[in-house]
Amino acid sequence: MMLEIRKLDTGYGKKQVLFGLSMEVRNGEIVAIIGPNGAGKSTVLKAVCGLIPAWNGRMCFDGTTTNGSTPAQNVARGITFAPQGNRVFAGLNVMENLQIGGFQVPRKELRGRIAQVLDVFPVLKDRAKQDAGNLSGGEQQMLALARALIARPKLLMLDEPSLGLSPNLVRSVFGKIVEINRDTGVSILIVEQKVREVLRVCNRVYSLKLGKLAYDGTPEELRDDKGKLKELFL
Predict the structure, then answer these.
(1) Going edge to edge, which strands form the sheet with 212-217?
(2) pTM listed for this prediction
(3) Which end of the chain has fewer CB atoms < 10 Å from its terminal CB, N or C?
């Protein structure tokens, strides 16, 4: 088991967002979290990476309890997080963004890791000296993925990687996610609003509603049950 969450309560300030949430990610899986806005999906990722503390419950990564761990400690363990929205450091070039992704990697290793990642994302190799803010939306998302892979994570967490992208770019990004999972074996936990697209690529899916688990099953079950899918978003 790569990630286990058991009876997690957490939130922001005095506002509780997650209520007794239990879920898991197995080795090599792509697991999706779906649900309506405000359901607590992004909060799960922030708790796992250490941006917000667990109030109650337990989080366990690769056999180690991570309650109370800092984001830097979790990166060192093998967890990386690509948040939604501001995906890249716009004022830095592509190479500098990638170097930031390897802030814990010894300098002697970093150059080789960057070269390997650029082989996965060849479009970035041609733009290494270009400011990240001048990249297209799809290229910025590719850069965010590439930067997250520099640390060679065991668990890659993605928060709405399709945000703001055209349909063609969405398919391209999801294709790259599948490729990364297949070729590296990294487990992926992905929060996504484009439900039909993410159901095509994930192995299992959780749905949240008002901070509680509303569904735990296979994507095939949801794809074949449009009534259930609609119910989860009402």
Answers:
(1) 79-82, 155-159, 187-191, 30-34, 204-209, 212-217
(2) 0.91
(3) C
